[in-house]
Amino acid sequence: MAPEPPLLSMSGITKSFPGVRALDGVDLDVQAGEVHCLLGQNGAGKSTLIKVLAGAHQPDDGTIRWRGEPVTLRSPIAAMRLGIATIYQELDLVEHLSVAENVHLGHEPTAAGFVVRGKAARTSTGGLLKRLGHPEIDPTRLVGELSAAQQQIVSMARALSHDVRLIVMDEPSAALDPDEVDNLFRIVGDLTADGVAVVYISHRLEEIRRIGDRVTVLKDGRAVAGGLPAKTTPTRDVVALMTGRDVEYVFPERPVGEPEAAPVLQVRGLARDGEFAPLDLDLRPGEIVGLAGLVGSGRSEILETIYGARRPTAGRVTVEGRTLRPGSVRSAVRAGLGLAPEERKAQALLMLESVTRNVSVSSLSRFSRAGWVDRRAERAAARAAVRELSLRPDNPDVPVRTLSGGNQQKAVLARWLLRGCRVLLLDEPTRGVDVGARAELYAVVRRLADEGLAVLLVSSEVPEVLGLADRVLVLREGRVVHTAPARELDEHRVLDLVMEGSPAS
Amino acid sequence: MTQPVSPPRDTAGKIGPAGRPATWRSLSARADVRTLSLLGVLAALVVIGGVTKPDEFLDTRNLQLVLTQASVIGVVTVGMTFVITSGGIDLSVGAIVALASVWATTVATQEYGFAGILFTAMVVGLGCGLVNGVLIAYGGMVPFIATLAMLASARGLALQITDGKTQIVTIDSVLRLGERDSYVLGVPPLVIVFAIVTIVGWLLLNRTTFGRRTVAVGGNSEAARLAGIDVRRQRLYLYLLSGLCCGIAAFLLIVLSGSGQNTNGNLYELDAIAAAIIGGTLLSGGRGTVTGSVLGVLIFTTITNIFALNNLQSDVQQIAKGAIIVAAVLVQRRTARTA
Ligand SMILES: Nc1ncnc2c1ncn2[C@@H]1O[C@H](COP(=O)(O)OP(=O)(O)OP(=O)(O)O)[C@@H](O)[C@H]1O
Ligand SMILES: [Mg+2]
C-alpha cells in the first residue's frame, strides 16, 4: 500500500535452545494498522518468535528493523520503549498485587520520582478497563481473585498502558467466551483503526479469517508462507502448510446405539453454595458427556467438586456404587477418577521436572514396589503415552518447562492416559492445542471411550462439545438448563441456551 | 489415525538409548556442572589447606577430625534437604539436637545404658518432628513460624532439663564409639553413620515414590494435590524425617563430646540451610540434591578447619562463609542460565 518501509521487519531470525532449533531463519513483515496472524503447530516457534520481538529472548542471528531502522532489542524494556507490547501465552501477572499495580508495574506514575501515586494509577487503570469494555473490574482487586478471562483483560490493559505501536497477542482467545472474543475483536478493530499493528496468534482458524489481514505460517521453526491474504486463502491450504498434510478437521464417529452398561459415575444433588445448584448426572462407561456454558457458569467448579478438589455443600458422588469421601481427591483418584484441570501451569504441571516425571506422578504405585520406583518401566510407559499423543519433542527426558504451550497440555493428558482411569474429567482439553493434534486428541478420547472409559468434558468451544460428546448438558449460572443428545443440538441453539437460558419452562 | 505424520528425524529407528553405554552417559550427565563445580571448590580448599599447613592439614588425624565434625551437621543437613525440597523450612533443627542430646543424657536415661541413650535421642527427635509436622501439615501453620516456635520451646526445655549444666556420659560403650580403637579401617564410626544416612537419603530422594512426592509437593503443591498425592501426610512425614535426623545427630554429638548440653547444635539451622542451598537445593522447593548438600557440608567444615589451623578468628570465618554462600548462588544462577 504505502511506499514507506513496514513498521516492523524481521529477517533471518534464528534461535536455538539446547538440542532444539526453535527458529531457523524466519522472516516477518508487519505493516502499521494491520492484523498479522501467526499460525503454526504446537512447537512451531510462534511464541519463541514473539519473545524475540519482545526482547525476552536474544536471537542467535538475524536482523530486526523498526520503521526501516535496524534495532537490537536487548531487553523487554527496550522493546517497550519502541512501542512494542506483548501479551504472553502464559499470563505473567503478579497475583498478590492489585489490578492497578499490575497494569503499571515497572512504570508507576510517581511523584518526586519515587513516590507511587496510587490514585493516579487507579484512575488511569479504570479508564483503560473501560476502554476494554470491562468497567466492572475493580482496579483495587487482587489479580489472584480474578477469573482467567478477567486476567486476560488486565494483561491487555497493561499492554495498552504504554504508548504502543505494535501489540503482540499470543493465543489471547484461548481462555475467553464467545462474547469475550467478540469484545476482544472490537478492541483489535479500534487499535488498528488508530494505526496500531497487531500480531495475533491463535489455533482457531475461524478467528484468523474474521480479523486477520495477512497470515504468516511457521512450521518447524521456518516460515513456510509469509503475508498470505487472511480472508481469501482457503483453510485447507493453511492447514496443509502448517501440518504438511491434509488434516480432516472432523470428529471421530460415535458408536451406534446407546451405551447399556450401568453408570460408572453417579452424581446426586451435588451442589456448592454460590457456585452451582444441585446437579444430578449419570455417566456410563463408553459415554462422553459434555458440559457447555460460559466461563463462570460453574463448569470447572462442577468438575473440581466431583473430583474432590472442592468440598460440596450438599450431595454425593458414587463411582461403581461406592460413595466417595466428599472433598477428598485421594478417594476420587483411588476410585478411578482423573482430572485434566483448566490451568495446566498452576494446577497440573511440575515445571522443573521432566516430562516423564510429570506423566508418571499419578501412577507412581504402578511403577514401584515397596516404594521403590522402577525407572525403566516408568520411562518406557511415559514414552509410550507421549508417542500416543504425538507430543513434541518426543523425548520424555526434557523438562516440561521447555515444551510449547500445546505440548504441555498433552503432557497433562498423558498423565491420565497412563493412569488408565475409569472416569476422565477433561477441562478445556484442547486449549492451545493445534488443529492437527486436536484431531488426534479427539480420536484418542473417543478410542478410550470405546474401550470403556467414561468422559466428562468441559469446553468453551461449542463445536468441540457438540462434535465429541454423545450427550450435552447446557449450563447457565450454575444450573443445568437443558440436556440433550449432542446430535439434536447445533451451535446456535447452544449459544442461545447459554446466554438466555431455557426459553420454555 | 494416530500415526505420527512425519516421524521426528532423530528418533526414528532408535529404540531408546538403552544398552551399556547409556548407563555411562547418564552417570556423566548426572555429575552435572553444579556437582563438578562443588567438587572443584572442595579440591581447591584441600590444596589451600595442604599448602598453608602441609603437615597438620593432610595429617590422617586431622582429616578424620574434619569428617567427624562434618558428620553431625551432615546428618542434620540431609533431613533439611528433604524439607527444603518440599518447599518448607525447619528452623528448629539445632534446638531439637540440643533437646535430644540433653534428654538422652539425663541420669534417668543413662540407667538404661547404650540403648536407652540411642532410643531416647531418636524418640525426642521424632517427637519434635511430629509436633512440627502436625502444626504445619494439619494446623496450616507457616513452616517458618511453626519451627521458629519449636526452636524457642525446645531450647527452653533443654535449659530446664539441664539447668545449664553439662551432663557427662558415663556409659562406656557409648564413649568407646568415639575412640580411636573403634575406627573401622581408619574410619570413625560416626563418619560411617553419616555415610549411611547420606546413601539412604540419596536413594530415598532419587529412587523412591517418597522422593518423587517430596519433589512434586515442593514444585507445585496444588498440582500434586490434584494428581492424587496426599500432600498433608507427605509434609508430616518430611518433618518427622528431619526430626529423626536431628535425633541421630544428637546421638553422634553425645558420642563425640561425651556429654549432653543445652547449648548443643547452636546455629545448626543456618549451617544446614546454607549447605543445602550452596549444594543446589532450591529454597523455593521443587528441586533438591543430597549429593550437593553433603558437598556443601564438607566445604564448610573444611573451611572451618583450615581457618582454625591458621589461627584465624571465628569472625573471619563467618565472613568467609557468607562470601562463599553468595559466590555459590551466583555461580549457580550463571550455570542455570547457560544450561
Ligand atoms: N526455554 C526453552 N528451552 C528449550 N527449548 C525451548 C524453550 N522454549 C521453547 N523451546 C522449544 O522451542 C520450540 C518452539 O516453541 P514455541 O513455544 O515457540 O512453540 P509455539 O509455536 O508457541 O507452540 P504452541 O502453539 O504450543 O504454543 C519447541 O520445540 C519448544 O520445545
Ligand atoms: Mg506458544
TrEMBL record, chain A:
<keyword id="KW-1003">Cell membrane</keyword>
<keyword id="KW-1278">Translocase</keyword>
<protein>
    <submittedName>
        <fullName>Ribose transport system ATP-binding protein</fullName>
    </submittedName>
</protein>
<dbReference type="InterPro" id="IPR003593">
    <property type="entry name" value="AAA+_ATPase"/>
</dbReference>
<dbReference type="InterPro" id="IPR050107">
    <property type="entry name" value="ABC_carbohydrate_import_ATPase"/>
</dbReference>
<keyword id="KW-0813">Transport</keyword>
<feature type="domain" description="ABC transporter">
    <location>
        <begin position="259"/>
        <end position="502"/>
    </location>
</feature>
<dbReference type="GO" id="GO:0005886">
    <property type="term" value="C:plasma membrane"/>
</dbReference>
<dbReference type="Pfam" id="PF00005">
    <property type="entry name" value="ABC_tran"/>
</dbReference>
<keyword id="KW-0067">ATP-binding</keyword>
<keyword id="KW-0547">Nucleotide-binding</keyword>
<keyword id="KW-0677">Repeat</keyword>
<keyword id="KW-0472">Membrane</keyword>
<dbReference type="GO" id="GO:0005524">
    <property type="term" value="F:ATP binding"/>
</dbReference>
<feature type="domain" description="ABC transporter">
    <location>
        <begin position="8"/>
        <end position="245"/>
    </location>
</feature>
<dbReference type="InterPro" id="IPR003439">
    <property type="entry name" value="ABC_transporter-like_ATP-bd"/>
</dbReference>
<dbReference type="InterPro" id="IPR027417">
    <property type="entry name" value="P-loop_NTPase"/>
</dbReference>
<dbReference type="GO" id="GO:0016887">
    <property type="term" value="F:ATP hydrolysis activity"/>
</dbReference>
<dbReference type="InterPro" id="IPR017871">
    <property type="entry name" value="ABC_transporter-like_CS"/>
</dbReference>
TrEMBL record, chain B:
<dbReference type="GO" id="GO:0005886">
    <property type="term" value="C:plasma membrane"/>
</dbReference>
<feature type="transmembrane region" description="Helical">
    <location>
        <begin position="236"/>
        <end position="256"/>
    </location>
</feature>
<keyword id="KW-1133">Transmembrane helix</keyword>
<feature type="transmembrane region" description="Helical">
    <location>
        <begin position="63"/>
        <end position="84"/>
    </location>
</feature>
<keyword id="KW-0812">Transmembrane</keyword>
<keyword id="KW-1003">Cell membrane</keyword>
<keyword id="KW-0472">Membrane</keyword>
<dbReference type="Pfam" id="PF02653">
    <property type="entry name" value="BPD_transp_2"/>
</dbReference>
<protein>
    <submittedName>
        <fullName>Ribose transport system permease protein</fullName>
    </submittedName>
</protein>
<dbReference type="GO" id="GO:0022857">
    <property type="term" value="F:transmembrane transporter activity"/>
</dbReference>
<feature type="transmembrane region" description="Helical">
    <location>
        <begin position="182"/>
        <end position="205"/>
    </location>
</feature>
<feature type="transmembrane region" description="Helical">
    <location>
        <begin position="114"/>
        <end position="135"/>
    </location>
</feature>
<feature type="transmembrane region" description="Helical">
    <location>
        <begin position="290"/>
        <end position="309"/>
    </location>
</feature>
<feature type="transmembrane region" description="Helical">
    <location>
        <begin position="33"/>
        <end position="51"/>
    </location>
</feature>
<dbReference type="InterPro" id="IPR001851">
    <property type="entry name" value="ABC_transp_permease"/>
</dbReference>
